[in-house]
Amino acid sequence: MLLASTTASALQAAGFIGTWDTDVSAGQSVLDLGAASVLAGNPGLVGKPVPLDVALAQIHPEDRDWVFGTIRDLRQTGGPVAIEFRILTRTGETRWILNQGLLAPTETGGLHGRGAYIDITNLSGRSVPRRDSGPASTEHLDAAADHCVQLHTALERHGDAALRLLSGMLLLGIGRALAQRAS
């Protein structure tokens, strides 16, 4: 997916990693370059259908069982996906990831899902200390939130589900940053 340079940099600033596309009945997901590199730990898997354990190979060992269980449950029922978990990078660093998306029914009665991964380590304050840039950064976040709400509203009218998902994730990231500044 090609994004305008300003949107791409805004998504990067919000921690956007990449996207997934899942055929539930086949039990396989297709990852974009960011997701294949960070979550699977193998950029060579981009665009190739892979099973869940390969797509999420970098999940922290302490989180694997419950994350895989949650995903298996969602693959039975469908619905919104919103899971926060840790990964271990190839360099041994622990990062917090938000997996957000939707598993929806298909015309044939199966489930198909799409979503994205966002690195929320800096937003959660769990592994990386929060950096407070003062009042000026709050003004910039407020302005970004206003613009993002307008963007999200326009994309809802446009009807493209993938773009709405991306703008929703950006809103989530900005909202978390604003909430963290308020605390």
From TrEMBL:
List the InterPro entries hit by this protein, alphabetically: PAS, PAS-like_dom_sf, PAS_fold_3
Q: Where is the signal peptide?
A: none
Q: Which residues form the PAS fold-3 domain?
A: 56-104
Q: Which Pfam families match?
A: PAS_3 (PF08447)
Query: What protein name applies here?
Result: PAS fold-containing protein
